[in-house]
Write a structure and sequence with these properties.
Number of domains: 2
Order of helices and strands: EHEHEHEHEHEHHHE
Number of helices: 8
Bound molecules: nicotinamide-adenine-dinucleotide
CATH architecture of the largest domain: 3-Layer(aba) Sandwich
Strand order of the largest sheet: 3-2-1-4-5-6-7
Radius of gyration: 18 Å
Length: 260
């Protein structure tokens, strides 16, 4: 049990990577808040975790909404206790070449990925700094925190931006014992990725199989998808790491797609 008694908030935890991280944290003994824009899915996920004996709280939270984030964190503090770990993970994808991208879609992407990371980080620091107990913030970045791909301008921009936020928090949070790191997965088969396979096939005039083989996994060392379990294992490692030796870093989990 590497996270016994810890309180963790995971955003976008009703599906995919966030759900797997929340499940792994619960398995390691943490009390987990499933924060998601979809309350029904969050409640279903929390109920599933509770069935296995974990303590889980579902919260409706649009991470781009200041009030929703602040209220959600207050509710977690009241119900589960002051959080020890934040995983800022909620995210979506939008596929468009720059010349067709609307300002509305650009802003929507940056609002979820960057406003969301900022607002949840700020709420976390406001609760955690006064305790002097410290904690860990983990951002779900991406290989797209380092690499660019066609059709993904706002996503790539936002994921690069998370590295900056992480590094500032590492510096500012040090005196409060708050560590800050980014996980950068390669492609993982979640609903977010399943949705973009046909979209990319259409935009790039390729078959769906070729999108997977020639676009998504082309640069990996072995043509393999990264798994949910791979990412969750790194998230446990970062949350449970015992000192501030590991802060301001990013860990790329991508079958060698990006090597840094
Ligand atoms: P997913 O679609 O399975 O899950 C995303 C979750 O975020 C959903 O439950 C959704 O309801 C929630 N969400 C969406 N908008 C929200 C908002 N405004 N506020 C709160 N919750 C919101 O996707 P996923 O693949 O698990 O993605 C999770 C994170 O991992 C994202 O940040 C994504 O960019 C990142 N990521 C994914 C991959 C991949 O290949 N799947 C690779 C690298 C990084």
């Amino acid at each position: 049990m590497r996270m016994n008694g810890k309180v963790a908030i995971v955003t976008g935890a009703a599906s995919g990577i966030g759900l797997e991280i929340a499940t792994a944290y619960a398995r390691e003994g943490a009390k987990v808040c499933i924060a998601d824009i979809s309350i029904d899915a969050a409640q279903a996920a929390a109920a599933q975790l509770e069935k296995s004996g974990a303590t889980a709280l579902a919260i409706a939270m649009d991470v781009s909404n200041e009030q929703a984030v602040d209220d959600g964190f207050a509710q977690v503090a009241k119900t589960l206790g002051i959080p020890d770990v934040l995983v800022s993970n909620a995210g979506i994808q939008h596929i468009d070449p720059i010349e067709n991208l609307s300002l509305e879609n650009w802003r929507h992407m940056l609002a979820i990925h960057l406003d969301g990371a900022f607002l949840t980080t700020r709420a976390f620091t406001r609760l955690v700094y006064p305790t002097g107990r410290g904690g860990a913030v983990i951002y779900t970045g991406s290989v797209h925190s380092y690499e660019a791909s066609l059709l993904k301008a706002p996503y790539v921009t936002a994921k690069h931006g998370l590295l900056g936020l992480c590094r500032v928090l590492a510096k500012e949070g040090a005196k409060h014992k708050v560590r800050s790191n980014v996980i950068c997965p390669g492609f993982v088969r979640t609903p977010l990725v399943e949705k973009q396979i046909p979209e990319q096939a259409k935009e790039l005039n390729l078959s769906e199989e070729d999108v997977i083989r020639k676009v998504m996994l082309k640069e990996t060392v072995d043509g393999e998808f990264t798994t949910l379990q791979d990412v969750a294992e790194v998230a446990v490692f970062l949350a449970a790491f015992p000192s501030s030796a590991l802060t301001g870093q990013s860990i790329v989990v991508s079958h060698g797609w990006h090597m840094s």
